[in-house]
Structure formats: C-alpha cells, structure tokens
C-alpha cells in the first residue's frame, strides 16, 4: 500500500498491521502508527526547503525543537545536509511547546532516505534490535493543486517490536499532539515566507 506520494504506508486499523519495509520489501508487523498532514498555501519547493532546513526548527517547530545532523556517536557534523547514512539528533518536546526551558528528550535517528526530486525524507530509530524497537518516520511534500501553488505535507511514523506496545500505551497521545503541532508549525512557517 502507498500514499498518493508513493511512500510505502501501512494500512490503518487493528493493533497489528502489515508494513512494507522500504529497503528490502520484507513484511513485518507494526504496533503503532502516528500520522499527520496539512494543506499549505505555499509551493511544494518552499515547504520542502523549510522542512529540510533543520537549523530553522527552533523558529517554528514546537515538537522537534532542534535537529542536528550528526554521526552515530552523536557528534554534530559541519555539513548539516540531510543524506542517507547520516544521523539526526532530535530534541523533542512532549507535549509540544515553543518554551525551551521545558524538559525535552534527545532522540538519535538514522537517516535512511532523502529524495529531493520527490520531496521526501525518512529517518528512524534503529539502535535496538528490530524485535525490541524499530521505527521509521516518513515525511513528504506534494503539490496539492495542478498549478503547484499549494502543497500537502504528509508524515507517518511506524513502530514495531515489543517496546512499541509500551510506547503505544503511554505515548500515543503526546506523539499525535507532536505530529499535529509540527504539521501546523510547518504550515505557518511556510506560508509566512
């Protein structure tokens, strides 16, 4: 199954759902799916540039307050360009907030896919064995009208492994709030440029 953007997305409904793995087309099971979208009154290129400009996240993103391209040892790289094989260190607020005096979580994710032509990116948590916890978060920007003056931002994270069930029990609501807040923030920032 895929979204209108061509991203592999799992079907909705039920606790266990089938998910296609992008890299090897294997089938596995997800325990948790979080998604959000927004129609944005800005060109897809403008929205994409805002989304991949990690250094601007503190200006508009109440969920991911900062994102730094780094290596696996969490050392920030001079080159902050997203590319497959690099990592991103995310400072996450749950619940989302622009107040940086609040406590936050630091999350290391591996960048697995960056497609500038089709405006989509994927990163995920791959530090633990897949049976423990594994996640992928896809984000994409597509034209929402034939003239390309408006865009649709779409994001979905899929988690599986036994810890995903624990995440589902305790973090579904704050994660959904975060995804929704990020989509809203991206809309506001992109439309203001």
Automatic annotation (TrEMBL):
<dbReference type="InterPro" id="IPR019587">
    <property type="entry name" value="Polyketide_cyclase/dehydratase"/>
</dbReference>
<dbReference type="Pfam" id="PF10604">
    <property type="entry name" value="Polyketide_cyc2"/>
</dbReference>
<protein>
    <recommendedName>
        <fullName>Coenzyme Q-binding protein COQ10 START domain-containing protein</fullName>
    </recommendedName>
</protein>
<dbReference type="InterPro" id="IPR023393">
    <property type="entry name" value="START-like_dom_sf"/>
</dbReference>
